[in-house]
Automatic annotation (TrEMBL):
Organism: Ktedonosporobacter rubrisoli
Pfam families: TetR_C_14 (PF17754), TetR_N (PF00440)
The protein's name in its UniProt record: TetR family transcriptional regulator
PROSITE patterns, A to Z: HTH_TETR_2
Transmembrane segments: none
């Protein structure tokens, strides 16, 4: 009788394969859901409609997504998560402005890499009054966490309330740049647009 064993590399490969399969199913669900949202409307599309279209049960759907909102807003949360990782790696000696600028420019680049996906989601949200404002404001939920990371990561040049105000300012500039970019059907360069708006905001603040 032969002994069967798995090395650490074998285990890592199995985990990697599992993750790839999971991501493939998630992508299929997302693409199908977005198509249905466009064809029949977000509110008119049920989770059961999505599940049936991808030939799975609603129970299986919930293994991948907690709700329709998660399907629609998922890339926003993912880009925020990835940008938080960038923020956590900035040098402690960096200024708050430099740290935030690097973080939000990185987020703009992530949006631009997925421009088609973000545009479809924006168009779906814009046609649905109940979620239209949530689409652009959902990123604001991360403001306190961003502020906490900055306060703990950087040398204390600002108190918490000053930092909170600064984070809110950068988030507002980012949101406005994204909204204008999406209204222009994501045709332009979001990174350049955000850089222009951040420079303008900096100039205006010095003139007040």
């Amino acid at each position: 009788m032969s002994d069967t064993f798995f090395t650490r590399d074998d285990s890592a490969q199995r985990i990697s394969l599992r993750e790839r399969k999971k991501r493939l199913v998630q992508t299929t669900i997302e693409e199908t859901a977005l198509r249905l949202f466009q064809q029949q409307g977000y509110e008119q599309t049920s989770i059961q409609d999505i599940a049936e279209a991808v030939m799975m049960s609603t129970r299986t759907f919930f293994r991948y997504f907690a709700s329709k909102e998660e399907v629609l807003f998922g890339p926003i949360h993912t880009s925020l998560y990835e940008s938080m990782r960038v923020l956590q790696q900035v040098a402690p000696t960096a200024t708050p402005h430099a740290a935030l600028r690097t973080t939000f420019m990185h987020m703009a680049d992530l949006y631009q890499q997925q421009r088609a996906s973000f545009l479809i989601r924006y168009q779906v949200a814009a046609q649905t009054p109940s979620i239209a404002s949530i689409y652009l404001y959902t990123m604001m939920e991360k403001e306190p966490e961003i502020c906490d990371v900055l306060c703990s990561r950087l040398d204390g040049s600002m108190d918490y309330h000053e930092m909170r105000l600064l984070v809110g300012m950068y988030m507002a500039v980012f949101r406005i740049a994204v909204e204008i970019w999406l209204k222009q059907k994501a045709q332009g360069d979001l990174v350049s647009l955000l850089r222009e708006y951040l420079d303008l905001c900096s100039s205006l603040s010095h003139n007040i």
